[in-house]
């Protein structure tokens, strides 16, 4: 029997890597990454999302890679009201939420939105998570 520890990276097939990169960095606060051969990705925590253009797939790949076929859930330490304000300020439509759901480690409250390719993105916060410390303002 093998044992899997964690997810290292995911690959999203996207129509436009630049547009996807902008969304994941500007809207979701992820960090841009460039790999050899100008392959691009975003990272957060200990994970990476590699962004592969549908017109230039990297082999091996999924059997039917198409933009907009993913459903991803990201956990935030921010209050969901802050997330809602940020999304609205950036003209990102909230599809649904806040709604109660179940995450890998227990009850979560979620907001749903879509990335530029139509992938369903869930931003969630564990219901028993402590409030994040407010950011210190520059003086």
TrEMBL record:
InterPro entries: Glyas_Bleomycin-R_OHBP_Dase (IPR029068), Glyas_Fos-R_dOase_dom (IPR004360), GlyoxalaseI/FosfomycinResist (IPR050383), VOC_core (IPR037523). It comes from Saccharopolyspora thermophila. Gene3D superfamilies: 2,3-Dihydroxybiphenyl 1,2-Dioxygenase, domain 1 (3.10.180.10). Keywords: Dioxygenase, Oxidoreductase. PROSITE patterns: VOC. This is Ring-cleaving dioxygenase. It comes from the Bacteria. The keyword Oxidoreductase applies. The keyword Ribosomal protein does not apply. GO terms for molecular function: dioxygenase activity. Residues 6-126 form the VOC domain.
């Amino acid at each position: 029997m093998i044992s899997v520890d964690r997810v290292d990276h995911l690959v999203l097939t996207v129509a436009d890597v630049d547009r996807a990169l902008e969304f994941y960095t500007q809207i979701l606060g992820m960090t841009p990454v460039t790999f050899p051969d100008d392959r691009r990705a975003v990272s957060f925590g200990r994970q990476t999302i590699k962004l592969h253009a549908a017109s230039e797939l990297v082999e091996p790949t999924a059997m039917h890679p198409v933009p907009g076929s993913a459903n991803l859930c990201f956990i935030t330490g921010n209050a969901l009201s802050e997330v809602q304000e940020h999304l609205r300020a950036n003209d990102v439509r909230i599809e649904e939420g806040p709604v109660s759901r179940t995450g890998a480690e227990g009850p979560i409250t979620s907001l749903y939105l879509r990335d530029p390719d139509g992938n369903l993105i869930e931003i969630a916060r564990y219901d028993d998570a402590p409030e994040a410390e407010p950011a210190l303002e520059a003086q």
